[in-house]
Design goal:
Blueprint lengths: L2 H7 L3 E4 L10 E4 L3 H5 L6 E5 L4 H9 L4 E4 L7 H10 L2 E4 L4 H10 L8
Parallel strand pairs: 2-3, 3-4, 4-5
Antiparallel strand pairs: 1-5
Helix pairs in contact: 3-4
Length: about 120
């Protein structure tokens, strides 16, 4: 699924990284606990989270995630935007809750960790 499709499906807005809208992601992870994310498979994934701090961007970079969606209307800090730009990660926000966002992406074929 392309980052642009995720944006459309979740009625999300780019905070930065709109130039990466054509990137493909192959799986999704929804968590507010970065320790859980660190246990996740390293592949081109999207992270959905309500956690708003620079550690989210650092964790996504370590796990080779290509896109982060902040749920529940959360807005990124300037530090988060700066880091996402630096690490070339698309950063978006949506008003939708995490459960709903994950369900929408799942219903359109995006899956979690395989294996």
């Amino acid at each position: 699924m392309k980052v642009s499709e995720i944006r459309e499906l979740l009625d999300a807005e780019f905070a930065c990284g709109e130039e990466y809208a054509d990137r493909e992601v192959h799986s999704a992870c929804g968590s507010d606990m970065m320790s859980d994310v660190l246990a996740y498979v390293k592949n081109q994934a999207v992270l959905l989270t309500g956690l708003v701090n620079p550690q989210v961007i650092r964790t996504a970079d370590m796990m080779d995630m290509k896109c982060i969606v902040l749920v529940r209307g959360k807005k990124p800090s300037e530090d988060m935007i700066r880091l996402a730009d630096e690490y070339e990660i698309a950063l978006m926000t949506t008003e939708r809750e995490m459960f709903t966002s994950c369900g929408i992406l799942y219903s359109k074929g995006l899956r979690g960790r395989q294996g």
